[in-house]
């Protein structure tokens, strides 16, 4: 990272964005002994529109990457709330409560004795915590630096950024795009465009004092008929807060002419199963919206001197809207390949293509299944049928629980035989 005469900064690797994808990439690079620069246009803490739910996948990734990060999370009870399961509410109003683990701490009373399988935390707190775990010895952090353009040079990519009212340049041999939805790297270097069929619009708000939350902080997904294939959610947070929101695929929202912000408020104030739970609730802050680039389509994730991670790579689960786990998973893969490229001094598109292969080898099966589930969710009768069956049958509930722990089991849901066996029980 020597300051050269021509550029304000020079580095082999530059990460653009310090959300979960960029920060995880940075932590993994530091652990591999690779120095780098990481930019973010924000200074932390900063808000990020999200449901704030962190699944078992995130927990598993932290366990492998650095368990001390997870221990820090569990220690800060005012910022992180452990969650032990998920409640699905079918279009017919029937609920299905699924613990994230088979014993789930429910029957054994394990709550409090073993770490929670998932957690919920405002991204304001979580992202700030994660950025605080970056290693200043190997990561040159440039926050408040907005990357505005690139120029391909023979020996690298020239990054232009704005900071403190001024202008800066950085020459990087490799750029890792971690700027989330609307990432400048995805747009300018990879040529990605927003595709309404593979994109979801989401809004969220915070409320205090919502009634009827599950005693083990289950997150709630309400598949209301009028919002299908999207859903309304209620996720509990520390300090008696909840994160409430609605997400719906953009193509559907356009076709059905749904204004999702109005749909969320209508659900809170008018829905017969929901409104009573909000009768003492106090809104906190504004309702905010943001986009979710879904992983329901394969894209090019790398090219000459660049790779995309997280939302910049469109890796959000198309059924659940969960993106943090895949953002982190892709960050770890990107760090691995970046290290190899750095060792071999080869940042060509041919070399980096390996990144796309590994990412899709790891994630495509799951993303494809979620795409199927997303389509099934458009059929309220099938959704009702599955929830009714599962409510009556402990082994079906156990299979679903296992799916949160063992991702291979999710492939069962893709097989027609699974539904046939359900039909005949
Ligand atoms: C309404 C909604 C609800 C969601 N709910 C959940 C949920 O409950 N659970 C879940 O797992 N996922 C959820 N997601 C998805 C999740 O928010 C994303 O998948 C996740 O934030 C992706 O992380 P990321 O690091 O790729 O991008 P981001 O978190 O968006 O981080 C990108 C970073 O890049 C920076 N940046 C952007 N452009 C530039 C630039 N030009 N120069 C410098 N810095 C830049 C930004 O400031 C930001 O800090 C939700 C998304 C939405 C919109």
Task: Give a short summary of the structure.
With 425 residues, the chain is α/β, with parallel strands linked by helices.
- Known CATH architecture of the largest domain: 3-Layer(bba) Sandwich
- H-E order: EHEEHHEEEEHEEEEHEEEEHHEEEHHHHH
What is the subunit organization of this protein? single chain
**Discrete helix count:** 12
Largest sheet: 8 strands, mixed
When the domains are counted, the total is 3
Q: Regions with pLDDT < 50 over 5+ consecutive residues?
A: 105-111
What's the helical proportion of residues?
Answer: 25-40%
CA(first)-CA(last) distance: 63 Å
* Approximate shape: globular
Output the CATH class name of the largest domain. Alpha Beta
- Rg computed from alpha carbons, rounded to a whole number of angstroms: 22 Å
What is the averaged pLDDT score? 91
Q: Say what the CATH topology of the largest domain is.
A: FAD/NAD(P)-binding domain
Q: How many strands in all?
A: 18
Instruction: Return the structural class.
Output: alpha/beta
Bound molecules: flavin-adenine dinucleotide
The CATH superfamily of the largest domain is: FAD/NAD(P)-binding domain
Report on the architecture of this protein.
The protein is an alpha/beta fold. It folds into three domains: 9-50 and 125-195 and 296-372, FAD/NAD(P)-binding domain (3-Layer(bba) Sandwich); 82-117 and 196-293, D-Amino Acid Oxidase, Chain A, domain 2 (2-Layer Sandwich), CATH 3.30.9.100; 387-424, no CATH class. Helices cover 34% and strands 26% of the residues. The protein has twelve helices and 18 strands. The strands form three sheets. Strands 1, 2, 8, 9, 10, 11, 17 and 18 form an eight-stranded mixed β-sheet that branches. A seven-stranded mixed β-sheet has the order 6-5-13-14-15-12-16, with helices on both faces. A three-stranded antiparallel β-sheet has the order 3-7-4. The longest helix is centred in the last third of the chain and has 28 residues, at 349-376. It is globular and about 65 Å long. Flavin-adenine dinucleotide binds at residues 16-22, 39-42, 48-53, 146-147, 178-180, 184, 202, 204, 245, 247, 290, 292, 310-312, 316, 321-325, 327. The site of flavin-adenine dinucleotide has 39 residues, from α1, β2, β9, β12 and β15.
């Amino acid at each position: 990272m020597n300051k050269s005469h021509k550029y304000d900064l020079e580095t082999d690797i530059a990460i653009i964005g310090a959300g979960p994808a960029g920060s995880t990439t940075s932590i993994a690079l530091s652990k591999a002994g690779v120095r780098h620069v990481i930019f973010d246009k924000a200074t932390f803490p900063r808000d990020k529109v999200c449901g704030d739910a962190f699944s078992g996948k995130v927990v598993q990734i932290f366990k492998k990457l650095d368990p001390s990060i997870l221990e820090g999370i569990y220690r800060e009870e005012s910022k992180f709330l452990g969650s032990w399961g998920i409640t699905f509410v079918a279009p017919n109003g029937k609920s299905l409560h699924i613990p994230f683990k088979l014993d789930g701490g429910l029957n054994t009373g394990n709550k409090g004795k073993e770490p929670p399988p998932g957690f919920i935390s405002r991204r304001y707190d979580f992202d700030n915590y994660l950025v605080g775990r970056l290693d200043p010895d190997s990561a040159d952090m440039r926050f408040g630096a907005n990357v505005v353009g690139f120029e391909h040079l023979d020996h690298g990519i020239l990054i232009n950024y704005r900071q403190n009212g001024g202008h800066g340049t950085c020459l990087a041999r490799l750029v890792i795009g971690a700027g989330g939805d609307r990432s400048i790297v995805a747009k300018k270097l990879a040529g990605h465009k927003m595709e309404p069929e593979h994109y979801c619009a989401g809004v969220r708000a915070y409320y205090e004092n919502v009634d009827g939350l599950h005693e083990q902080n289950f997150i709630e997904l309400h598949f209301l008929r009028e919002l299908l294939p999207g859903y309304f959610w209620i996720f509990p947070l520390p300090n008696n807060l909840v994160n409430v929101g609605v997400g719906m695929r953009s193509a559907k929202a356009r076709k059905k002419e749904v204004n999702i912000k109005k749909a969320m408020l209508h659900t809170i104030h008018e829905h017969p199963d929901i409104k009573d739970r909000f009768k003492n609730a106090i809104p906190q802050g504004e309702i905010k919206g943001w986009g979710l680039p879904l992983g329901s389509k394969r894209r090019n994730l790398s090219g000459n001197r660049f790779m995309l991670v997280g939302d910049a790579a469109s890796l959000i689960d198309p059924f659940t809207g969960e993106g943090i786990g895949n953002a982190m998973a892709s960050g770890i893969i990107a760090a691995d390949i970046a290290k190899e490229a750095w060792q071999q001094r080869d940042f060509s598109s041919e070399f980096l293509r390996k990144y796309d292969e590994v990412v899709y080898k790891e994630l495509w099966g799951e993303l494809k299944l979620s795409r199927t589930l997303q389509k099934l969710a458009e059929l309220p009768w099938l959704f009702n049928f599955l929830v009714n069956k599962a409510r009556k049958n402990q082994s079906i509930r156990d299979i679903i629980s296992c799916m949160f722990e063992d991702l291979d089991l999710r492939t069962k849901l893709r097989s027609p035989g699974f539904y046939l066996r359900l039909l005949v029980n």
